[in-house]
Amino acid sequence: MMSNDKELEQFTQQLQAEIMEKIGKVYTETVIDHWQNPRNFRRIKKPDGYGKAQGTCGDTMEMFIKINEDRILDCSFQTDGCGTSIVCGSMATVIAINKTFTEALAEVSASKILSLLGGLPEADKHCASLAAETLRRAMADLLYHKKFPWKKIYRKEQ
Length: 158
Prior knowledge:
By secondary structure, the protein is an alpha+beta fold. It has a single domain, classed as Sufe protein. Chain: A (Alpha-Beta Complex). The protein has six helices and three strands, in the order ααβββαααα. It has a three-stranded antiparallel beta sheet. A hairpin with a 2-residue loop joins β2 and β3 (71-79). α3 crosses α5 (110-117), α3 (83-96) crosses α6 and α5 (110-117) crosses α6 (126-147). The longest helix is centred in the N-terminal third of the chain and has 25 residues, at 2-26. 34% of the residues are buried. The model has no long low-confidence stretch (mean pLDDT 89).
């Protein structure tokens, strides 16, 4: 039995190395890093802004933001989507955190996300648009509730 366990372990390691080699030919190190270690993949309780969007592929993304004065203190996301949706959501939150509202609105775009990731294959580029749109919706929600703060208490808790 001991021999079979070692063989299985060696096979698993070899297979994983081959998969990572193939992935490395398609995706940049930055993409792989955000895929394996997504930043801010969580919910923020009682966010100041919340957005939800569905991509053209059917993936859904949610973003949550906390703001103090005019600066985004925290930004997080969740998605039921593929690895590149996770990667793009992760990068969008990294861009937004510590920016002013105006800076984040100007800087978080699909093209900026793609640029910082070092690009994505054509079939995956829509994930960057999904992440940027979801953050814009969270920021729009923040503005709406700033103008009508009493309506926030009627919003279904995220």
